[in-house]
């Protein structure tokens, strides 16, 4: 497997344009400029590249939705909001190799025929956004951005936009509202952004990692990309592992690597004396997987087949020192706080779930509360305007199935029997994991 996205991560500082180009950077443009756009979209479809922002939708298929005679201007918007707990992959490329982003945006913009590109960066990634700005300026100065790039007749500029904050800004239509200067409420779909997006114009929204795969696919071919994956997956992916493991971090590995290889070989396995209870495979909105599912290939279809979601490939570990109810409660608290407030089931339902979980911790819960959590998840999931709330209840529904005995124990014991000291130490390790660097 060839490292693509993390190939320059060993350098202490992001590469300047000259050094990046000396290593083959921007060479992909030779394979892209002048080539038939439809043919390139077909090649992308054949490569098996799927969106890395969480949903795993075929990138080539999404791009094919853009009408050939789409009214101008057409926009490309890159989602670098990365606010899902457990997800920290895009940040690595932003801080360590911003020219890889510029090249990915430029290649993708050419293929879809975009007139302008925007990179929407998570508000806390301020330093990273400045690094990207610098790379964009270097590209402008070298004629890689601007009018008639390298004599191709194609013109493009990239605007780096630092978010004002909030998780919901990562939802693609809320992101478009935020970019336009409005409150970040999700829009109704349809119309999808490819038809009516930024300022009402046709817009393709993609995750940052997704577009960074495009140059090498165009340069080396769809078959090469497929061959980079394993066990039915295509290409590589920036997997992340956080929580009580020896070597938390971000790892570029074949799509389809098993969860066991990822957690034990690359992330070093659990801290000494800890036992794996469960893990979330793709960020905090994905249903739990269990130790008997460790041999599942980490690609979209295989993880979906066992009832979870690959999401962003950000694995979060739950060990035997963490109360599963407390763990789950913390997740819902995040989603309750980040609700945009537009629809009632999410705005009022998620805080009520937190309240119910608190009753289990405080020892006042009854079997009726357990039932209410179950029913509330069923009501919230399918009745909201965007995917934030369904994503929030997925781990709760999976916790209800997996940790049924824990709910009962909390009722019988009138509270939580987990040692608060052990839980605090474990949570500190989990926090360190999310901060962890690339390995
Ligand atoms: C609440 C919420 C937050 C999201 N946050 C992000 C994010 O931070 N980054 C991202 O790429 N996609 C995020 N998504 C998914 C985007 O809506 C969209 O599907 C994605 O940017 C499409 O790009 P892709 O096809 O390349 O994955 C989020 C979705 C929801 C519902
Ligand atoms: S589900 Fe939540 S975040 Fe999404 S629109 Fe409704 S209130 Fe807003």
From TrEMBL:
The molecular function terms in GO held by this entry are: oxidoreductase activity
Keyword field contains Ion transport: no
Domain NADH-ubiquinone oxidoreductase 51kDa subunit iron-sulphur binding: where?
Answer: 325-370
Alphabetized InterPro entries for the sequence:
NADH-UbQ_OxRdtase_51kDa_CS, Nuo51_FMN-bd, Nuo51_FMN-bd_sf, Nuop51_4Fe4S-bd, Nuop51_4Fe4S-bd_sf, Soluble_ligand-bd
The alphabetical list of record keywords is: 4Fe-4S, Iron, Iron-sulfur, Metal-binding, Oxidoreductase
Name what cofactor the protein needs: FMN
**Source taxon at top rank:** Bacteria
SUPFAM superfamilies per UniProt:
Nqo1 FMN-binding domain-like, Nqo1 middle domain-like, Nqo1C-terminal domain-like
Name the NCBIfam families on file. PRK13596.1 (NF010120)
User: Could you say which protein family the record assigns here?
Assistant: Belongs to the complex I 51 kDa subunit family.
This one is known as NADH-quinone oxidoreductase subunit F
